[in-house]
Structure formats: C-alpha cells, structure tokens
Specification:
It is built from four helices and seven strands, in the order E-E-H-H-E-E-H-E-H-E-E. It is α+β, with helices and mostly antiparallel strands and 162 residues long.
Length: 162
C-alpha cells in the first residue's frame, strides 16, 4: 500500500508502508496549515484537534500560548515552559512579556497532562487566574485555557472557569 505523506521539509512524497508517526505527522501538517500566522481562529474544534495532535504524545508537561490579534487572527504559537512527567513551572511574567512583544490582544493558554487526564488540577486553576489577572491589567484577554490529555482537551471557557 502506498500513501502520500509529508516529510520534515514539508514536501509530499510517496512511500511504501506507513508508520503511525507518518500518519500523525501528515495530519498535523494538514491542521497546521489552518493555523498559519494571520489566519483567523473561527472554530474551537479546530484548535482542539490541532493541540491534541501537537501535545497528546508528549511525555513531559509543557505550557504554551496561542497569541491572537484583536479580531482573533493567529499571531503565533509558543511553547514557553517544559517540565517533568506531572508538572511544569509557569511564570506569568514571561507570558506577559511574550504577549506584549507580539502585540497580542488576546491569548489562549495551552498545556498538556501526559497522564492522559485533561481535568484541571487546583494548581492549574490558580495559575490560570493569576495569568488572567496579570494580562487583564494590560487589556489582553485570556480567551481560553486548554488542557490536552490523551486524545481529549478540557476547555476552561466551555466549563465556565474564565
């Protein structure tokens, strides 16, 4: 069986047997095209799918941020902190600095739980509030905080926590 896959350079090639990693990389490439800089974010489902593909198989907890313009055009995605199996240190000061550097009007906070369980911990809720408070002083809105666990994502906004 042959399959058209995307190699690391972004070019398509035809291969013989296809590995699971090839399929995931191909799907990630297709979804990433929806999230090129300056594209407008219109669907939370697209963001969920992209993040699950990006973070689901990470073995360390990481924390990142999607930066958005006033009209929710994508300004970029950055992984800011990487930690251990079950925690990462998050520094609101670094988040504020990055948002200001990119002239973001809004952000989506993102992190993963390598355990596969996307439910937020008490610490997740506390840091989200701390970051939201810091950014709101500068008129930067936190649109959502998404936690990826396995093939699922928990949305703070959808659960009324923002």
């Amino acid at each position: 069986m042959t399959f058209t896959a995307c190699d690391q350079s972004g070019l398509y090639r035809t291969t013989g047997p296809v590995s699971r990693e090839d399929i995931i990389r191909f799907a990630h490439t297709l979804l990433s095209r929806r999230f090129r800089n300056r594209r407008k974010i219109t669907s939370s489902d697209d963001v969920h799918q992209w993040l699950v593909l990006k973070l689901a198989e990470d073995t360390r907890e990481s924390f990142g941020m999607i930066l958005l313009s006033q009209q929710h055009h994508l300004l970029g995605y950055h992984t800011l902190f990487t930690g251990t199996l079950n925690q990462t240190m998050v520094y609101p000061r670094e988040i504020v600095a990055l948002a200001l550097t990119h002239h973001a009007a809004a952000v989506i906070l993102v992190h993963n739980h390598p355990s596969g369980e996307p439910e937020p911990s008490k610490a997740d809720k506390l840091i989200t509030q701390k970051i939201t408070d810091a950014l709101s002083l500068l008129d930067i809105r936190v649109v959502d905080h998404l936690i990826v666990g396995g093939d699922d994502a928990y949305s703070f906004a959808e659960h009324g926590l923002l």
